[in-house]
Amino acid sequence: MASLVPKDKRQLRACLICGIVMNHHVFRDQGCPNCDRYIRMRGRNDTVTDCTSTIFDGLTAMFKPTGSWVAKFAHINTYQPGLYAAHVTGRIPEDLEDALAQKGITYHARDGSAEE
After folding, report:
1. What number does CATH give the domain 2-106?
2. Average of pLDDT values for 70-88?
């Protein structure tokens, strides 16, 4: 469980798609545990920079997402355990959003703009 807490907090970034919070080098080395099947971040610094943000707030630590009402309320109950941001500032690039749409995946910005 301690491995879920990032050691180097200076390089924390949140995924713009799922909201998971990890260090830049973890996204680069391992990819996003939830989104890598759609957007390949592993080994791609530019994709990590485009698809993550350093500006986020509200953290939720999720250890058992499938059994958590908080995870269900935050729409992260199908994701991997980890730290998740409530709001992430930024949007993925338009071409990536179009590519997701072609795969039948609707992108929802995590900055709260969809709630307005």
Report:
1. 3.30.40.210
2. 89
